[in-house]
Specification:
The complex is a heterodimer of chains A (about 300) and B (about 400). Chain A is built from 12 helices and 2 strands; from the N terminus they run αααααββααααααα. Chain A is mainly α and about 300 residues long. In chain A, α3 runs antiparallel to α4. Chain B is built from 12 helices and 18 strands. In chain B, α3 runs parallel beside α4 and α11 (about 320-335) packs across α12. The chains are: A mainly alpha (about 300), B alpha/beta (about 400).
Chain lengths: ~300, ~400
């Protein structure tokens, strides 16, 4: 088993493509997290649970005979309102407090969501079949499930759409203004309360899209949210706050890194190696930061 | 106001007293044998927890309606006190304490899953409470020298042993090349150890040995390795998520492998969720309705299947069948012990040697059932896409012939 990847060169292509497709999907979830982290200074532990809830929406459409791919349109619409409701009920009470309180609050939401989903949908692992088939490349030595390609494509469409929306629309500008300086934005007539609610709604809608995609590419289960939260958290940390193109890059980068770690170090070190990379990046950042301070002195 | 407060205090004190006195009447009261069980009714194991509970209830009703348990010339009825352990090992251990020391339960039934059984076993052992469990298969449960733990099911290391031996047999007795992917949890790793043993004994070679992280949703890398190395057998175990992910990605990536063996197929409702894509998968199972074991209470597997379906509205997974069997074992042991002395019941349990609709039951020193082999069924679909699980190994129980090798995806 020693370094199979070097003996079979086509596996390199497979690993890169798998990693990219996986990374793009994760980046979409991280996009939402980066957005509301940047605007509201809230780390949303319930991010993954919103994803799973979005997945269940697509799954139920599938159960009722509607193609689950329509979930990428229906799910974000429903999830937007779920997001706004969560904001009105809980988040607006913690938005100006320190980070720790918001983490606790969203952690609570996360537990509540898990239990409610378990109660409502049952504890079975479920999935929705898209029936999209497979793309074979290089004489069948590289195979890519079309559902993954579809997921990546939709993620890119939504990510680009979001960037354009943030640049061009009135609400988008208001969101960016609030992110830069909430107080100044308020003085200039921006209704920050509305902006916050919309931001949280948009984040939940992005989670809804990602969830629908996950239900057709992977599996969903009420307790499966946390890994998605952690992954998007890592992607945002690596990219740095407020850096949306960086989120896309770090998402794909981590995806590819993870695939290679699987082939070279073994599957059991896959997640661990990503965490190790995270630690290294944080230490490096810290190192750079400390240097800067010295320079300022 | 003051008088009202006093009355409220008095009434609630009475209520507490009354409730505790009712509960502490547990164990054997009048004509009732009260068993205790902590079951996952909520949390991530809740679906299997409910199967377990339904299995227990079904057997209690059946035994009671057919004359109950006869001990020392007197007839007793079974009753069970349930608590919800929330799928949480810590909670399960607390509840076991509570069942034993507060509710006075003297005999226990097991929870769902190896992890929770592991949490409860030290407690029942400490108090010398005999526990018959039906849903903890992890090998480590049976190597700790527990004296009061009895499991009606075959240990985890035997789950896929049959698959490897069958593959070797089909290969003319020569060793095969095995690719395996197991989730990193106690149960799946025990299944893995079983495969390692079987491989060693049959001279087979393990060419891929992936340990899947618990949070992993994606097996693409493992399957790409399988495609590149072309093993004879692919073995996957990772609970329902592992089974569903494996089938989805094997179909999507068109991975051709002559034999695919897995665990948790029926819990994952593979053929329902994946249809024809799950065809030809071999699945390890503790029980199947077509096995021809018999007993006086449930007659045989087919009857059990029909009765259970009638009562609960769905076909019994093996988790329910083995849970029902646990009650039959208790009844048998009580009658042979002729007493409710915990030590005597324990010794009677240890000497169990009986057949139930679920299989033969005979406990080894460690408490595991050594008289019941695992069965393998294969998912077989007809042209209309309707799939059924048919037993293919061991040959003695086979209701259909094993389809081997699995046809290539290009021919399906």
């Amino acid at each position: 088993m020693d370094f199979l990847i070097f003996q079979v060169p086509m596996l390199t292509v497979q690993a890169v493509l798998d990693g990219l497709l996986l990374g793009i999907l994760f980046a979409l979830i991280a996009y939402g997290m980066a957005l509301q982290w940047g605007v509201m200074n809230i780390i949303n532990i319930a991010q993954g649970d919103l994803v799973i809830l979005g997945g269940y929406i697509a799954y139920f459409m599938y159960l009722y005979g509607i193609h689950p791919a329509w979930g990428v349109i229906v799910s974000p619409i429903i999830m937007y309102f779920v997001g706004v409701i969560i904001y009105k009920l809980v988040i607006n009470k913690v938005v100006d407090r320190d980070l720790f309180i918001s983490i606790l609050a969203t952690f609570g939401i996360s537990i509540l969501f898990m239990q409610l989903m378990n109660f409502a949908f049952g504890a079975d692992v479920v999935l929705a079949n898209s029936g999209y088939g497979t793309t074979m490349l290089f004489d069948n030595s590289v195979t890519l499930p079309n559902s993954k390609i579809f997921s990546a494509f939709i993620s890119i469409v939504f990510a680009i759409g979001l960037v354009i929306y943030m640049k061009k629309s009135k609400l988008g500008r208001a969101i960016r203004a609030t992110a830069q300086n909430a107080r100044a934005a308020k003085i200039l007539g921006v209704d920050t309360e509305k902006v916050y609610a919309a931001t949280f709604g948009i984040n939940a809608a992005l989670c809804g899209v990602a969830g629908a995609l996950i239900s057709i590419t992977f599996t969903i289960h009420p307790y499966m949210g946390l890994p998605y939260t952690i992954r998007s958290f890592m992607i945002v940390i690596v990219a740095g706050l407020g850096n949306l193109p960086g989120v896309a890059m770090s998402g794909m980068g981590l995806g590819v890194f993870e695939e290679f770690a699987d082939y070279i170090l073994g599957t059991e070190f896959r997640i661990g190696s990503v965490f190790l990379l995270l630690v290294l990046i944080l230490v490096y950042r810290r190192f750079k930061l400390s240097k800067k301070r010295e320079y300022l002195k | 106001m003051k008088i009202k407060n006093i009355i409220i205090t008095f009434v609630s004190a009475l209520a507490i007293l009354f409730s505790t006195s009712v509960v502490s009447l547990a164990k054997v009261v009048g004509d009732k044998i009260i068993l205790g069980a902590a079951i996952s009714l909520t949390g991530k194991y809740s679906s299997n927890g409910v199967h377990t509970q339904n299995g227990y209830n079904m057997a209690v009703d059946r035994i009671n309606s057919m004359g109950g348990v006869k001990v020392g010339g007197k007839t007793y009825m079974f009753d069970i006190i349930y608590y919800d352990d929330e799928s949480n090992p810590k909670r399960a251990a607390q509840l076991a304490e509570r069942l034993i020391s507060q509710d006075g339960v003297e005999f226990m039934l097991g929870p769902y899953s190896s992890g929770l059984t592991k949490a409860i076993a030290p407690v029942t052992e400490k108090y010398g409470v005999p526990m018959v469990e039906a849903n903890g298969a992890s090998r480590s449960l049976f190597t700790k020298g527990y004296k009061y733990l009895f499991a009606v099911l075959a240990p985890a290391n035997l789950y896929l042993d049959v698959a490897i031996r069958t593959a070797v047999e089909l290969n003319g007795g020569k060793g095969v090349r095995i690719a395996q992917a197991f989730e990193q949890d106690a149960f799946s790793q025990d299944v893995r150890l079983g495969i390692l043993d079987a491989a060693k004994e049959t001279g087979s070679k393990i060419i891929i040995d992936d340990k899947l992280p618990k949070e992993l949703n994606d097996m693409a890398a493992t399957l790409a390795k399988v495609k590149a190395t072309k093993p004879d057998v692919l073995v996957v175990s990772g609970h329902t998520k592992g089974a569903l992910t494996a089938i989805r990605q094997i179909a999507e990536m068109k991975v051709d492998v002559p034999m695919l063996a897995m665990t948790h197929c029926d819990a994952a409702k593979l053929s329902k969720q994946h249809g024809a894509n799950s065809q030809y998968a071999l699945c390890a199972s503790q029980w199947h309705k077509t096995l021809t074991y018999k007993d006086d209470f449930f007659t045989d597997g087919m009857t059990y299947d029909a009765d259970f379906t009638k009562e609960f509205g769905y076909a019994p997974p093996y988790q329910a069948a083995e849970s029902s069997a646990a009650l039959l074992v208790f009844k048998d042991a009580f009658e042979r012990a002729g007493s409710f002395d915990q030590k005597k019941v324990r010794d009677a349990l240890a000497a169990t040697n009986m057949q139930t609709f679920y299989g033969n039951i005979k406990f080894a020193e460690g408490g595991q059932n050594v008289d019941k082999p695992m069965v393998l069924f294969q998912v077989m679909c007809d042209d209309a896409g309707k799939c059924e699980n048919k037993v293919v190994a061991p040959l003695k129980w086979a209701s259909a012939e094993l389809i081997h090798p699995i046809p290539k995806w290009s021919d399906r």
